[in-house]
């Protein structure tokens, strides 16, 4: 079976926020964003206000080697084109999606984006074997759900901690909390690179989980890990070597 490791980065829809929560207050969109942030004590914006601005997909072959990582819709980029390309691909993909917290965040945001842009994805939204189904692990393995026993355990430290636990660099100078600031500063290329980096690192967490589940034996795990480590920089698209430990 083929696998697709995916991740998204988002911006806040400041205009929708303003029109919904501060109508007739005479605020511009940036003022409304600041007011909403202050009124709600900062923190993470509601899912309904997130708009995808970068989507990266890592293509993993049935030998569990990460073959390619790509940012969608880079040519003639637009947010609508980004969403349409994602749903076109996902609706015809026969393998398993791999994410970290994708059921609670990435896919709900992408589903709302399909609603926004009037995009049809019947295989995803209606098929009996859709990866949308809550317990369809064979079509969508959410690593957060698996490692937290579907929310029974609190994974404090999140993806960053888990990556460091298995010898990966984890989050460095960029984190999801900085994406809005980077977007406002016009740093979309850096956001795409960060998104690809998250996909590559999530892949290494995925194959470690596959080893735990008995889907990979030790030899196959190490072969897949080493094959991908050797191409890490090319996959992410950076010139800086990652600080990856040789944890096994």
In words, what does this structure look like?
The protein is of the alpha/beta class. It has a single domain (3-236), classed as Ribonuclease H-like superfamily/Ribonuclease H (Nucleotidyltransferase, domain 5, 2-Layer Sandwich). The protein has 11 helices and 5 strands, in the order βααββαβααβαααααα. Strands 3-2-1-4-5 form a 5-stranded mixed β-sheet, sandwiched between helices. A hairpin with a 5-residue loop joins strand 2 (50-60) and strand 3 (66-71). Helix 1 (14-21) packs across helix 2 (29-39), helix 3 (79-92) packs across helix 4 and helix 9 packs antiparallel against helix 10.
Helix content: 40-55%
Which descriptor suits the 3D outline? globular
The fourth-level CATH homologous superfamily is Ribonuclease H-like superfamily/Ribonuclease H
Fraction in beta strands: 5-15%
Termini Cα gap: 24 Å
What low-confidence regions span 5 or more consecutive residues with pLDDT below 50?
A: 239-248
Number of helices: 11
* CATH topology description: Nucleotidyltransferase, domain 5
Structural class: alpha/beta
In round numbers, the mean pLDDT is 92
Side by side, the strands of the main sheet go 3-2-1-4-5
Main pleated sheet: 5 strands, mixed
The total of beta strands comes to 5
SSE pattern: EHHEEHEHHEHHHHHH
Q: From the coordinates shown, what is the CATH architecture?
A: 2-Layer Sandwich
Provide a compact summary of the structure:
With 248 residues, this protein is α/β, with parallel strands linked by helices. It contains 11 helices and 5 strands, in the order βααββαβααβαααααα.
